[in-house]
């Protein structure tokens, strides 16, 4: 077996073979590895930073764009607009998936963060209903649609870039970075919202205070765009383009219909399943729990934010550890561990939180992070390793964005409805445990082990005739 002597991976041969390497199309030293990581995670950070600040400032946004009704009506209208982004995610995944597969990972990354930053900043600058009338909420909906499109393509493209440039045996750690960045974005957004809520009067918060965090996202997006434009594309995409140019292989170009190919049906079901439990768990931890503690458990808002902030910080630290465990023990075992954890502990965790005892709440939230990190840290990995190289972003986009889109995005609403409908404070655990059980059974039956799989394979992993090598392999990409 020939190993690439460079500090990064070479590009392996075609198909599912695990032996041999080609000359690397891209040499990434430690400095460039850091640039790649920064370029990718900043987009995920901005994405979930926006998620947090919109949720925390939903009441102020509702008063600005939907005046005339009660405060509850304004809030519901604002949250309805918030949900538009989830509906647009699958379409965005398709559009940016085709861009990433045809024009390159760097092109998809650059366009998505540029569009995301511009839409977020424009929301912060958008005049309210009192200034431009009905055009204000209409433009808000349009900008949320644009955000949803860009977000739909961000996760897949950044995951591909991180994993396709990962050193041997380090895909798991690198693939965990988007999940870690998402948690840090949620944490930063919630803490910033808390600070603004403490420092500003309700009037100031409603008139101008809510706009500032949206404007803060703009320079972060510009920084990400600048870093991304300085990168070369991944060695996997470079090799695909080399083969096309040399006409050495029949390398297909991605098309929209690749997202619904019949031979990917099993892989799409797998993708939807791990994405659904990933999304529900993350949105619970990053959005719903703070409202659950403040409204249902009736903790002071500041205490609720600080407790969930602590949980998000711990969870962010656990993501790379879960990625390392995935490299050692494999994707399948690690994800199934997380699903079993949610199915078994989903209800007990909410029972602990419902006590209102700070120690019990911390224990519950730590357990939540421990069982959620193995799922989220592997989502990027499996998404990229599961599908064939030439069409992986297009092929995986539909199942992934359907999973983390509406079914997950409406999870907090389902949780709140369960509390009202059943009268049981711990009833949100029913939905969490139920989703984990369903997804866990599907993944137990269908999820192949993808660790160590050749990233230039021309079929999806569910069609492999032999298992991939262990995750610790140092053989090529």
From TrEMBL:
<comment type="similarity">
    <text>Belongs to the major facilitator superfamily. Metabolite:H+ Symporter (MHS) family (TC 2.A.1.6) family.</text>
</comment>
<comment type="function">
    <text>May be a proton symporter involved in the uptake of osmolytes such as proline and glycine betaine.</text>
</comment>
<feature type="domain" description="Major facilitator superfamily (MFS) profile">
    <location>
        <begin position="36"/>
        <end position="451"/>
    </location>
</feature>
<feature type="region of interest" description="Disordered">
    <location>
        <begin position="1"/>
        <end position="27"/>
    </location>
</feature>
<keyword id="KW-0813">Transport</keyword>
<feature type="transmembrane region" description="Helical">
    <location>
        <begin position="426"/>
        <end position="447"/>
    </location>
</feature>
<feature type="transmembrane region" description="Helical">
    <location>
        <begin position="111"/>
        <end position="143"/>
    </location>
</feature>
<keyword id="KW-1133">Transmembrane helix</keyword>
<keyword id="KW-0769">Symport</keyword>
<feature type="transmembrane region" description="Helical">
    <location>
        <begin position="267"/>
        <end position="285"/>
    </location>
</feature>
<feature type="transmembrane region" description="Helical">
    <location>
        <begin position="305"/>
        <end position="323"/>
    </location>
</feature>
<dbReference type="GO" id="GO:0015293">
    <property type="term" value="F:symporter activity"/>
</dbReference>
<dbReference type="InterPro" id="IPR005829">
    <property type="entry name" value="Sugar_transporter_CS"/>
</dbReference>
<dbReference type="GO" id="GO:0005886">
    <property type="term" value="C:plasma membrane"/>
</dbReference>
<dbReference type="InterPro" id="IPR020846">
    <property type="entry name" value="MFS_dom"/>
</dbReference>
<feature type="transmembrane region" description="Helical">
    <location>
        <begin position="360"/>
        <end position="386"/>
    </location>
</feature>
<feature type="transmembrane region" description="Helical">
    <location>
        <begin position="398"/>
        <end position="420"/>
    </location>
</feature>
<dbReference type="InterPro" id="IPR036259">
    <property type="entry name" value="MFS_trans_sf"/>
</dbReference>
<feature type="transmembrane region" description="Helical">
    <location>
        <begin position="79"/>
        <end position="99"/>
    </location>
</feature>
<keyword id="KW-0812">Transmembrane</keyword>
<dbReference type="Pfam" id="PF07690">
    <property type="entry name" value="MFS_1"/>
</dbReference>
<dbReference type="InterPro" id="IPR011701">
    <property type="entry name" value="MFS"/>
</dbReference>
<feature type="transmembrane region" description="Helical">
    <location>
        <begin position="180"/>
        <end position="202"/>
    </location>
</feature>
<feature type="transmembrane region" description="Helical">
    <location>
        <begin position="51"/>
        <end position="67"/>
    </location>
</feature>
<feature type="transmembrane region" description="Helical">
    <location>
        <begin position="208"/>
        <end position="227"/>
    </location>
</feature>
<dbReference type="InterPro" id="IPR051084">
    <property type="entry name" value="H+-coupled_symporters"/>
</dbReference>
<keyword id="KW-1003">Cell membrane</keyword>
<feature type="transmembrane region" description="Helical">
    <location>
        <begin position="335"/>
        <end position="354"/>
    </location>
</feature>
<keyword id="KW-0472">Membrane</keyword>
<protein>
    <recommendedName>
        <fullName>Putative proline/betaine transporter</fullName>
    </recommendedName>
</protein>
